Amino acid sequence: MADTNEGPAGGAPPPGGGGATLPENGWRKEYWKKNLRLMVVLLIVWFAVSFGAGILFVEQLNEIVIAGFPLGFWFAQQGSIYTFILLILIYAMRMDKLDDQYGVSERDDDGSWS
Amino acid sequence: MSDIQTWALVFVASSFALYIFIAWRSRVQETKGFFVAEQNIPAVANGAAVAADWMSAASFISMAGLIAFLGSDGSIYLMGWTGGYVLLALLLAPYLRKWGKFTVPEFVGDRFSETVRSVSALVAIIVSFTYVVGQMAGGGIVFSRFLGVEQATGVAIAATVIFAYAVFGGMKGITWTQVAQYTVLIVAYLIPAWAVAQRMTGFPVPQVSFGEILAELNRIGTEFGLPVYTEAFTARPQIDVFLVTLSLMIGTAGLPHVIIRFYTTKTVRGARYSALWALIFIGLLYTTAPAVGAFTKLNLLEGVQGAAVDALPSWVQNWMATGLVTVGEGVDTIGTVSNDPLSGADLIINNDILVLASPEIAGLPAPIVGLVAAGGLAAAMSTAAGLLLVISSSASHDLYFRYVDHHASESRRLLVSRIAMGLAVLVAIYFGINPPAFVAQVVAFAFGLAASTFFPILLLGIFWKRTNAKGAVSGMLAGLVFTATYMIYTLPVFGTQANDHIMGVSPEGIGAIGAVVNLVVTVVVSLLTKPPSHEIQEMVENIRYPAVARRTEASST
Question: Distance from B78 to chain A by nearest Cα, in Å?
Fold first, then answer.
């Protein structure tokens, strides 16, 4: 579903991470590729924890009991939710870094915290 | 007036006064304020608003009860209604915010074609109406139990308050009241949960301490003839648990009233952090709910086990008045408990009362019970308001101005949007008082339709430039028809015969397969027809980078 090879052919990637003033497309492709890679890794974890630990392997994991919780049951009703929060946190922070690196950051005056 | 009623009245009246005050402070004069709150909402506040928008009467009132009776398989709701936020945060929210207009149909209109926009607007209206009905009915239950008001009067009071802040403040008023409503509902949910956890285990963090009682719950459950609580797939087969979870996740990410909440942030980065805050705020309730379900179920079973019918705890008497708790005919002592009215068990408990009654079941003081009433209403009203905004914006912005009144001035647009909102409130009141018999099943429709229509074409629209209008129309229609057909085939909704589930797939789970059908059809048809124009490909390119031509003004075309 990703189309990293599409779009008009572009210039060379910026040396050492560029800025928005560089010629189009070269840095864009690189930025997008990194974005997609991050996304895919996070989605694999998303799937593994919820559908893997919480559904497909829940019965095997239930053999292990920690603090009263059968482990599969814990993943299905608690652990998966904590992981989801962590995944979005990692995504938001890594994307901040990526935006900075490629000069498309909006950090000034975006009011994320205020 | 009983103690509980007095306290409920105090909390409900003061929370309503707060909402009206906020509404007055944030009234708007422009369509940009009315539809997207001037795109000026800080991420934390927006996260709280998303959480209130998302957590409905069903999440607050029904979910813990559902989980209590489903046991381990209740995880379909827990994972399904939170996992969707990962999809939203990673796949949709930042890009739709970058594109930056008013509605979801408007995006597909720009990206694909006007036909897709009209179809989407209609689907958005249908999905949102089915949802609003449940909120109104949920509000009515709270009013009738806690305030001794007729259900119809209760619906009318709640709707009048919603009317006040939604019509005058639009999205801006809704956003700031949702922030307040989130605060009310989470406090109302957590305080009794902490108290119950403390009382039952001596450790007040329910997420951790409900592990201790699981073994006990498994034991007593079997004595009542219930399945083992922590054992998976006792309520649904594995394949169905998988598909329902996936459908709810995809449906969550495709629901228009959730997506538009991300249009109100200041920046793309704000949209990402909004999603984070939203899931933190939602997770607070969603990780507590299974604990509340387990604690209350244990309390309840221990309270009624072997009890004579004339010596049941007082909460049973209180709730029998609402018809949500019934004792079987000719029963002397309670030996079996169920949530299914057809099961013939000695004591039948409706899912909806577990949260509302949990403070009473645990014997907590009256002010806490009253607080729960205000929380239930906050959950119902915040979601209703968000849905009504989608109905109003789809009807006015996506349909009326395009087909009827092309050259409306800004002030006229605002007026028409307000009238649309007012009409939507009236329709919602009507259905809240006279809910169609099939409300429960219809919620499955809302998720199934959102999953099988919106999500796939939004996803492809952003991540695959080659997707074209013909592909999107065919995909949407294929997903819609496939999903609706299976639902009508398996649910007795339109007076039709309900057939057996095929391969164990329930109507709640079919949306996931519908989404795959949509995806495949869209891809195949797109590949067989002409690629979209260069301008459209350039537009897709542009929404992928936060600050290139950053923060374009929202236009009202």
Answer: 6
